[in-house]
Structure formats: C-alpha cells, structure tokens
Amino acid sequence: MTGGAGYIGAHVVKSLLENDFKVVVVDDLSTGLERKIPEQAIFEKQNISDTKKLAEIMKKHNVTGVVHLAAKKAVGESMTNPSLYYQENIGGIISLLEAMNQANVKKIVYSSSAAVYGDPVEEKVHENSQTHPQSPYGETKLVGEWLLKADEKARDIEWIALRYFNVVGAALPELGDTGVNNLVPMIFRALDNKQRPQVFGDKYSTTDGSCIRDYIHVSDLAHAHVLAAQKLITEKYCGIINVGTGQGFSVKQVMNTVSKVIGKDVNFEISQPRPGDPAQTVADVKKAASDLKWQATNDLESMVTSAWQAWQKMPPANN
Ligand SMILES: NC(=O)c1ccc[n+]([C@@H]2O[C@H](COP(=O)([O-])OP(=O)(O)OC[C@H]3O[C@@H](n4cnc5c(N)ncnc54)[C@H](O)[C@@H]3O)[C@@H](O)[C@H]2O)c1
C-alpha cells in the first residue's frame, strides 16, 4: 500500500494486518512517520513518482493488489499551489497505474474524497450525485477516479474508490493525526496556543448557521479498506463508495462536543467564511452498506475523545 506511514494509512495498515493481509508499505515519509509502520509490515521508502522502482517493488514482493493513499491533502495549499497538487496526486496515480501494469497487478483500492462533490444541492450526496470540486485538491481526487475508470477499460483493472468524508480520531493515541488541517486538531491547536478556535462563518443556510459535515472515525474508515480489498479478491467489482456515517454535525456542534470531552468550554469565535466551503456535505451511505456490508460504529463523541487522547499523548510535530 502507498502512504502507510500517514495518519489514515497507518490505521489501514493496522486493520489489514489484523485481517491477515501481508502488507508492503511504500511511503516517502514526506508527511508520514516511520514509527507508525508496524514491524509486521515490510517498509520500502520510496516516492511513488518513480514508476520503475514501484514496479520492481511490486514484483519483488509478489504484490497482488494495491491500496493507494499517498497524496497531498491540504485544500488551502492546493488553492495557492495547484500545479504541485496536479503533479503529486495525478502524476502519482498515473505512475502507480503504470507500475501496476508493468507488474501485472490488477486490483486497487483508491482514497478519494468528499471534496469531489463541491457544494452539493442534495441533503445527502450519493455516488451518482454531481461532482463539482471547489479546489484543485478535489479536482485531483476526481481525476484519479477517472484514471481508474479509463484503466478498467484499457487494462482490465478492478478498483474501488472510497470517498472519505471528514476523518477524525485515532485507534491508538500514538496513531493520532499529526497534521492540523482538519477541524478537530485545529481546535486542539488553538486551545494549546491559548487562542479561541474559529468557526468560519455562521450565516450558512443550516440549522445553526455553521457548516455541516459528516465525520467518520478513522478506525471505521480503515475497516472499509479491508472490506474493499476483500471484495476485490472474492469478486469482480469496479465502483465508487462513500464512506461516512450518513449523519451531519455542524461546526458549532463539534465545538460543543470538544467542550464536553475536554471538560472545558472552548469559547469559540466566529470569523469570515472560507472561500469554497460548502454549507453542508453529508454522505448517503446506502452503497457502503449494500456493497461492502459496512457501516460506521463510532459516534462523534468517541471520535473526539480518541482524538483528544492522541493529541495529549503526542503533540503534533508541526504544532
Ligand atoms: N485526512 C482526511 O480527512 C482525508 C479526507 C479525504 C481523503 N483523504 C485522503 O486520504 C489519503 C491519506 O490522507 P492522510 O490524512 O493520511 O494524509 P497524510 O499526509 O498523513 O498521509 C499521506 C502519506 O503519503 C505519503 N506520501 C505523500 N506523497 C507521497 C509520494 N509521492 N510518494 C510516496 N509517499 C507519499 C506521506 O509521507 C504520508 O505518509 C490522502 O490521499 C488524502 O487525500 C484524507
């Protein structure tokens, strides 16, 4: 798998190993941490842009399928440096697909994102909803899906693109999110810095005016990868699957949940809305239930509790 030293990737590696998969992690450690890779996994420090090396690694370890998570993921950075995101994320998956072709590997689980939907018109977005990504990051994730569809036709690959919603929490404190691009770690960082956490806009057409998102525990998300990989082993399948809880929470509700978990009022403040932030993005999760037999098991409080435990144990490197 690619990106196994990262926040989500480390959880996916853990779940795959627990389900008796043999795992080879390919990661360049650009944002990931080697200490997150369990010793039962084989580690190859490698940037995925080197197609020849990737194909050699696949052949050397008799790889039969790929779980692809390595990518750049900061939406804001993608707005200011779009070509970096096109280069890394689209260049990355092109290189990977080419290496798979050279090594005759035909199955891939791909980490896509709810960012492909943009500003949805439906209360809940399903896999056939319109895609209007609002950032170069979201565009690169969508193009990744197109490349999978193209290689299904051209090279007979089988694939599952998991569209992750807002990922929170940790299975173990040492596997916490070390980045601070997501809401919950952003709140923790603000509190550590004795600043008031920001709610970006409270005039959206939602129940309390702040944006609504679908938050998913990283352990539940990791388990969806195991089921997706197993599905590709046992049957012929190609498709996109949303991975969320199907339940929306507003930013203010998340702030209140954090207050409850840490036992202290977070005393947030309202600031300007961020360009490109949709009012509401919540997953329709029927397809995950029917096709993967998967559903989320953790609620928001358990996500925030595990994230808080991880944050206290391991302050982020870039905090
Ligand atoms: N975190 C979220 O909320 C979220 C939501 C939707 C989708 N995603 C997607 O999930 C995936 C993993 O995200 P994450 O939060 O774990 O990010 P992360 O930055 O923690 O992990 C990415 C990993 O990929 C590695 N990597 C990056 N570029 C590489 C390259 N060119 N070659 C080899 N390794 C490389 C990094 O070193 C890191 O270990 C990404 O594809 C991201 O777009 C994340």
Q: In summary, what is this structure?
A:
It contains ten helices and 13 strands. With 319 residues, the protein is α/β, with parallel strands linked by helices. It has a domain at 7-167 and 216-244: 3-Layer(aba) Sandwich (Rossmann fold).
Structural summary, described in words:
By secondary structure, the protein is of the alpha/beta class. Helix 2 packs across helix 4 (82-103), helix 4 packs parallel to helix 5 (136-155) and helix 8 (251-262) crosses helix 10. The protein contains ten helices and 13 strands. Helix 5 (136-155) links the parallel strand 4 and strand 5 (158-164). The protein is globular and about 55 Å long. The chain starts with 6 loop residues before the first helix and ends in a 6-residue tail after the last helix. The protein has a domain at 7-167 and 216-244: Rossmann fold (3-Layer(aba) Sandwich). The strands form five sheets. A four-stranded parallel beta sheet has the order 3-4-5-10, sandwiched between helices. It has a three-stranded mixed beta sheet with strand order 11-8-13. Strands 1-2 form a two-stranded parallel ribbon. Helices cover 41% and strands 15% of the residues. The chain binds nicotinamide-adenine-dinucleotide (NAD). The site of nicotinamide-adenine-dinucleotide (NAD) has 29 residues, from helix 1, helix 4, strand 4 and strand 6.
